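Q: Given only this backbone (337 positions), what sequence would you predict?
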């Protein structure tokens, strides 16, 4: 008999107040496989007989993580005939409990875990910890689904007549290892030669799970890269805004300097539209060229050329003659006596 189901929901504390986080999943998977499947007397603790070999009813065959439900799932083979009957008849509830040791417990989360065994219990510490029968062989219930029971699957190399004979056997005939005559039985008399090997099924499922894990990793990586890109873009935009603001201030300063220089040189109105499309450095260069022109006197700027306030007086203004009278000697008389 093969049973399978969830054994530990990751990130969920059980009724006893402990649980495991993602960091411990691989430890449980690595240490639980091939460990005993047990059942203890109902009168005591559910794990009281975990160390007793007489309590063993089978072995854990496979352990894996279901990424969709974030649960550790387990598959076990029940080898004890009494246990098969009680499970098949429903006498034993389909609940189980894992026994785990831990190096330390931090706030109810186990660290440094090691799985020891799994025990069938009336009620588990996690409500999700239960199993179903995947394959069984016995009176009244026979479902051949796994390669572990390949003795119940007709030989694909047999002739059609042999297969038809095998498939037509009554389900009332017991199988060979139950004391029967060796005939092979299938529920409903159906021929299931195409039943896949459980290892192949698990391997295919592992491939799908690994692919999904990789997709999740890629998605997280892309989201991280997207976040980094957004942050970088925001920084670039902020830097561009600061640069543009500084340039705007520099242009205003350069334009004001040009207007001041032009005003000093008699330009009454400066059309600042002439600076459209020019950067502050270019405007500053124009101002420098303008500053190279000497600044005119204030009176020239105010109303044209003016005579100096103090100037040399003419001969007439001083009371003399401006030309003079011939003195008969080849000269002139320049002042009156």
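A: Predicted residues:
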């Amino acid at each position: 008999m093969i049973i399978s189901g969830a054994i530990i929901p990751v990130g969920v504390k059980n009724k006893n107040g402990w649980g495991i986080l993602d960091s411990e999943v691989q430890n449980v998977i690595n240490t639980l496989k091939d460990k005993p499947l047990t059942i203890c007397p109902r009168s005591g603790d559910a794990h009281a007989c975990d160390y007793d070999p007489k309590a063993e009813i089978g072995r854990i065959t496979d352990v894996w993580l279901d990424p969709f439900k974030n649960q550790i799932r387990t598959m076990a083979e029940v080898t004890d005939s009494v246990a098969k009957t009680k499970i098949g008849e429903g006498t034993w509830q389909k609940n189980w409990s894992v026994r785990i040791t831990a190096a330390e417990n931090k706030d109810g989360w186990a660290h440094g875990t090691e799985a020891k065994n799994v025990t069938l219990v009336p009620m588990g510490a996690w409500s999700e910890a239960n199993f179903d029968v995947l394959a069984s062989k016995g009176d009244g219930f026979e479902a051949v689904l796994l390669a572990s029971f390949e003795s119940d699957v007709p030989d694909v190399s047999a002739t059609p007549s042999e297969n038809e004979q095998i498939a037509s056997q009554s389900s009332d005939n017991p199988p060979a290892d139950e004391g029967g005559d060796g005939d092979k039985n299938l529920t409903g008399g159906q021929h299931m030669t195409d039943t896949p090997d459980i290892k192949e099924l698990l391997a295919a499922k592992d491939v799908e799970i690994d692919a999904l894990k990789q997709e999740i990793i890629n998605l997280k990586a892309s989201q991280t890269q997207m976040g980094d890109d957004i942050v970088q873009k925001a920084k670039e935009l902020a830097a561009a805004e600061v640069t543009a603001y500084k340039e705007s201030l520099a242009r205003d300063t350069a334009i004001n300097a040009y207007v001041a220089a032009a005003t000093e040189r008699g330009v009454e109105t400066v059309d600042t539209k002439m600076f459209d499309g020019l950067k502050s450095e270019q405007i500053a260069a124009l101002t420098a060229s303008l500053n190279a022109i000497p600044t005119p006197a204030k009176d020239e700027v105010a109303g044209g050329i003016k005579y100096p306030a103090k100037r040399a007086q003419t001969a007439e203004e001083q009371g003399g003659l401006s030309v003079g009278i011939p003195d008969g000697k080849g000269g002139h008389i320049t002042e009156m006596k």
